[in-house]
UniProtKB/TrEMBL annotation:
One GO location term (cellular component): plasma membrane
GO terms assigned for molecular function: transmembrane transporter activity
Transmembrane segments: 23-43, 74-93, 99-117, 124-142, 148-174, 383-405, 439-458, 464-481, 488-508, 520-544
UniProt-recorded name of the protein: Fusaric acid resistance protein
Major subcellular location class: membrane
Membrane topology summary: Multi-pass membrane protein
Cellular localization per UniProt: Cell membrane
Origin superkingdom: Bacteria
Pfam families the UniProt entry points to: FUSC
Length: 720
């Protein structure tokens, strides 16, 4: 019971809510501006030629969490060095040939933009900087090659200074750690999955709710990998556990897929009237949820998961013998293939759940042997989509370069280097057309603010303190805009290009015509980038969504034909990564998101079974004769062809080949009596093939239309 004094000391709910929302935003605003002033002051003290470059770097690099600042700074520094080396090479080769030089620069920007689209998180940003830095250094000095090396070195020094100031302020002043986000996500997801398993096994979850929960799980998987990749930069404890967190992500994908497959198979059995099999197996399902508890309460903390892992280990050890006894007690008239398939999925689900719980429990200690067997998340991006992004960047930079050469516009170089930065930066955004347009709007606002600062305030102030006081409200406005939902592009454009236009140098030049020319060049180049995103193979057009959906389906082809080494992890992570990209493109369109989610379920169910089947087929060479092996390979080939390009004919061929392979294995099973391991292997392969067949016949899958046309009385809907 709380005392009056404790109630008085408790913060007001509204104040507490503000502290966790806008309060954190204001801390980020003040930290960013403070880091910008620190970088500017040091650059001026060192007499660097363009201190505003250091200040601009702060606004590009600064992030709310210290780990994100350090990660972005690391990749910015690497990208800057790569861009520096490439540009020095291009200048040495083509400095006397402007057309060849600008063409080579446009080609390099296109390659880096394609690399940015192909990669994820801040690795993508490293590619952006490799292209942008080359343009930033090369375009201004192309006409003064004698100063190229010195200019390049000072640019790197200015960028490095901004990186160091951002990292120091982010890590030392009211730091927010990505490691806390990782720990909270891991704990929340484990608890949510335990709750999900309990409710689904109890039959109390609607289909629409299952879809929402699985969509949230996909977002958690992608988000956790992003947070883990930056948390290692800030926290030694997270570095010690990074491998286990990556492994936990992989095991969660595997166990959630296995559980969904098991749940869907049991639903199909219910609808098809296989009540005896369902009644025989349901008692085992009801035993699973209580195992995931400690002292009568669901497991939440990693330290409490060890007890649950021990309970699952005991349950897993006894399960085969108990299932075997249940199987022998069934009516001989029942088709045991249905029972064997469900039992096999139950075995694998319990095994994956045990591994997931063990890894979660291992996070309670600093070091653990599970840290050394790491399974990495492998993102998946369409090469064609990345190539389109690179081609678009190449065309835009080439067009603006041609206009600069033909018009001799003094600010044409500014337009070229700005386009190189914006086209690459916006390509990584889910809405690149909107992003580039917002940056143009932010730059227009920065132009108005910059004119006030340069021509009205600078002539009337003296000393760094007055300079900081004059810049403070203008810089805070830009950072504040960037923290508002949906206005990131405006804030980013304002902050970066306010510094570019009005950022102070050691010797300030008052050139109104040059200022206005540069401002016009910046805004026009961004609008051209926005138009390019909208016209040149637009990223929000149906073609890209169809392309990514095909890549999602082709994950089954990868499962059928890829190298088995770590194939399951590549398949799981790639499939979810593609769904997250489709979801971003289909934002606000629930019908498209639901269709993508249906394909995700179909791909995961069939692809997992294909990988399991291939693993069994390669494990024991003597268990199957040549005819059976050939029929299994034909079935895998036909299933891969179906998912590569679904048609009624390919659906029929896949279904027929799968049925033939099942019949061949069951015939072979009748002739094999000893050893038992060979019989069990044949039963497992038959179960995998049978599950693939039931998944193909499911009328609620995206292939359901083919199922209803060709086999109107087979299959079952996804019951909840």
């Amino acid at each position: 019971m709380s005392t009056p004094s404790s109630a008085q000391n408790r913060p007001h709910p509204l104040l507490a809510d503000w502290a966790l929302t806008d309060g954190l935003a204001w801390i980020h605003i003040f930290k960013t501006v403070l880091a910008a002033f620190l970088a500017l002051w040091i650059a001026m003290r060192l007499d660097l030629p363009q201190p505003r470059t250091a200040m601009t770097t702060v606004f590009i690099v600064m992030q709310p969490q210290s780990g994100m600042v350090l990660a972005k700074s690391f990749y910015r520094f690497c990208g800057t060095l790569v861009g520096l080396v490439v540009m020095l090479v291009l200048i040495s080769l083509f400095s006397q040939e402007p057309v060849l030089f600008l063409t080579a620069t446009a080609l390099w920007v296109g390659i880096c933009t394609a690399g940015a689209a192909r990669n994820r998180n801040f690795r993508s940003y490293g590619f952006v900087l490799s292209g942008y830095t080359a343009a930033l250094i090369g375009v201004p000095v192309a006409q003064h090659t004698d100063a190229a090396f010195l200019t390049a070195m000072t640019r790197v020094a200015e960028v490095s200074l901004g990186v160091v100031c951002s990292g120091a302020l982010g890590a030392l002043v009211f730091p927010r750690h990505a490691g806390s986000q990782v720990r909270a996500t891991v704990r929340r997801r484990f608890t949510a999955f335990v709750d999900y398993v309990s409710k689904v096994l109890g039959g109390g979850v609607e289909r629409s709710q299952i879809e929402r929960i699985n969509a949230a799980f996909v977002a958690d998987v992608v988000g956790l990998e992003a947070a883990r990749s930056v948390a290692v930069f800030e926290d030694p404890n997270m570095r010690m556990r990074s491998g286990r967190v990556a492994r936990l992500n992989g095991e969660f994908m595997s166990v959630s897929t296995r559980f969904h497959a098991l749940h869907q198979l049991m639903n199909r059995l219910r609808v098809n009237g296989a009540t005896m099999i369902v009644d025989a197996l349901e008692p085992y399902f009801r035993e699973v949820a209580p195992l995931l508890s400690a002292a009568g309460a669901p497991v939440e903390k990693a330290a409490d998961a060890a007890h649950a892992a021990a309970q699952l280990d005991t349950f897993k050890a006894l399960l085969p013998k108990r299932i075997g006894a249940t199987r022998r007690a069934l009516d001989p008239a029942i088709d045991l293939l249905e029972f064997d398939t469900a039992a096999e999925l139950l075995y694998r689900f319990v095994d994956d759940l045990h591994a997931y719980t063990q890894t979660y429990a291992s996070l309670a200690v600093p070091t653990h042997e599970r840290e050394h067997r790491i399974t990495r998340y492998v993102p998946k991006t369409s090469m064609l989509a990345a190539g389109v992004s690179g081609l678009r960047a190449f065309i835009v930079v080439l067009i603006l370069s041609g206009f600069w050469i033909m018009s001799a516009w003094p600010s044409g170089g500014t337009a070229v280097l700005d386009a190189a930065a914006v086209i690459a930066l916006a390509s990584s955004s889910p809405r690149p057309t909107q992003m580039a347009f917002q940056m143009a709007g932010g730059t227009a606002l920065a132009t108005a603010s910059g004119m006030i600062v340069v021509f009205a305030l600078y002539p009337r102030i003296d000393g760094f303190l007055l300079l900081s006081a004059a810049l403070l409200p203008f810089l805070m406005l830009g950072v504040f805009i960037s923290t508002r939902p949906g206005m990131m592009g405006y804030g980013l454009g304002y902050c970066i290009f306010f510094c570019f236009l009005a950022g102070p140098d050691n010797v300030i030049q008052y050139d109104p015509s040059g200022f206005i020319n540069d401002a016009i060049a910046l805004v026009i180049s961004m609008l051209i980038c926005s138009m390019a995103f909208a016209v040149l193979l637009p990223t929000d057009a149906p073609w890209l969504r169809r392309l990514l959906t095909r890549e999602l389906r082709r994950q089954v082809v990868t499962a059928s034909k890829g190298r088995l080494t770590r194939l399951a992890m590549r398949f799981e992570s790639g499939t979810r990564d593609l769904l997250s990209q489709i979801d971003a493109l289909a934002a606000g369109r629930e019908d498209l998101q639901r269709e993508a989610l249906r394909w995700l379920f179909a791909v995961l169910e069939v692809g997992h079974a294909v990988i399991d089947l291939r693993t069994e087929l390669g494990r024991f060479g003597t268990s199957t004769d040549a005819a059976s092996r050939d029929s299994i390979k034909r079935a895998l080939h036909q299933v891969a062809r179906l998912f590569d390009h679904p048609t009624p004919r390919r659906f029929d061929a896949a279904l027929s080949a799968t049925s033939v392979a099942i019949d061949d294995l069951r015939t072979l099973l009748d002739t094999v009596r000893e050893p038992l391991e060979e019989r069990h292997q044949l039963q497992r392969m038959s179960s995998h093939l049978h599950f693939i067949r039931t998944a193909l016949l499911d009328p609620q899958s995206p292939l359901g239309a083919f199922s209803q046309q060709e086999h109107p009385h087979e299959g079952a809907p996804h019951a909840a």
